[in-house]
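--- STAGE predict ---
source: upstream dedup step, 1 unique chain passed
mode: sequence only
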Amino acid sequence: MINRFKERFDGFTNTVLRFPLTMIFLVAWAIMNFVRLTSYDYIDYNEYAYAFLIGACSYVVLQVLYETFFKDRVTIRYAFMGLSVLFSIIYFSLVRSREPGVEFAIRTAIILFILLIAFLWIPTIKRKVSFNETFLVSFGAFFTVVLFGALLYLGIILIISTIDNLIVSVNGPYYEHVANVIILLYAPIHFLSLIPVYDEGEEKKPTKFLTNLISYVFIPISGIFTIILLLYIILNIRGDFWTDNILEPMLVSYSISVILIYILASQIDNIFSSLYRKIIPKVLIPIVLFQTISSLLKIGELGITLGRYYVIMFGVFAVIAGIIFSILPVKKNGIIAPILIGLSIISILPPLDAFTISRKSQIGRLERVLVDNEMLEGDILRADGSLLEQDKEVIRNSISYLENMDYIKNIVWLDEYYNYHNFEATFGFPRYDYVDHEKTFKSFWRSDSIIKVTGHDYIMEGSINYDNPSYEVGSFKKDNDEYYLYFSEDESAVILYEEERELIRFSINEFFYRFEKRDSDDYNLSNADASFRVENEEAILTIIAENVYLDMSDEYRDASFYILIGIK
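--- STAGE serialize ---
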């Protein structure tokens, strides 16, 4: 046991020495999270988190590149360290110069995906080791780390909870602290310690457990699912298949699962894996090809969105992969890696990237409907409620997509909508088409940009909706006394506590009731309209609404606001 512990410890130590810059980035990230968890003031660390993540992952790939092509050339290794730091600084600057939105997050996810594929593929370029083997090693390492990490987390939490209940009170967010250490320090070190420096030698084979799992669970399930998809296509090839597009949400997940199982099965020698490798690629090609054609036909009706772009892009990749698997030896599977990297790069770099193409498609689609209905002339937009229902749906769908992707602010003729978000006033018809056509949906926005805080000590941000459980809005200290502000969904109230003693509460039902009685056309709120105040001998709470959404048809309520707190 001692020898095994020493061997594992040496493995962890060697991993730190093998990926020193990655460890520095991860330690810095963990320290940053520790500060954020223990700070009473909210600080936005997004730019640092993005920078540390890109720096850590990029250096892992550069280190593998160094081991493959530049072994023992120390200057190259130092140059790669500098390059990784440069990537981190560039990403830090990008995040700091803009508000990270959906587009930025997706671009980052694609970059990380490219780094992952490069990490698996680079060791196979000069060596006899195959892509199937590097994938198998990483696949096994990942699930090993997930299992050990989960058990370690549960064990530590159990120990801390026992101490908290039986010996001494343990204050603070220790659940988060333990997760921080395990996810950012233990898990990456353990995972990388299981990744060898690949040399020519014995071929990597799955363990007996993994062999059985792939052969008798993954392959049969994948085969049954494939049969179902084939039956659906055969039964609906002349009609519904081309119009309902029911398979599109499943396309990417199906293609990914089939390709992953094929690669895993490539390292197994039995009748099940052999049949799977011979049959499944040839079946994958028509399934994905038909669905990709169906998605392309949908573009004329619904335009290109981010999701449809990636469905089509991955469909193209899956067809190419199916052809490669059908005609090339198993050892040549690795050729799909550079193809996947190339397609991923295309999807995030203008002018053929998913964001540029989808944005132009949806704006063009929206403009065509508005111009055809004489609602848009130059940069002048006129409301018109007499449109055909199909034209209204085009406007609703395109506006929703452009709004979700934060593209509205860059469209000159939508400035008024961007400023006030009043759909009906802008276009002449309600955003949501109810059966009874009554105005059951209301929305309000605060128009004043300055808030007076006189008479209050602190200001916090909060939000309310039915999807949120009860949660702590924030905490602070004054005169060595600690205060907590909670939103209680059950009691529909914002409650201020001093330690465990309630000081004051504010009724959320009363807050929404005032807006339910307000005219939906009067959507701009002054500070006076948006402010609600409660006061007693111990404290003051002033709630200032930022935006409020109400749907009386299903009693949905959503609001974000500032909370001003004064302690007497």
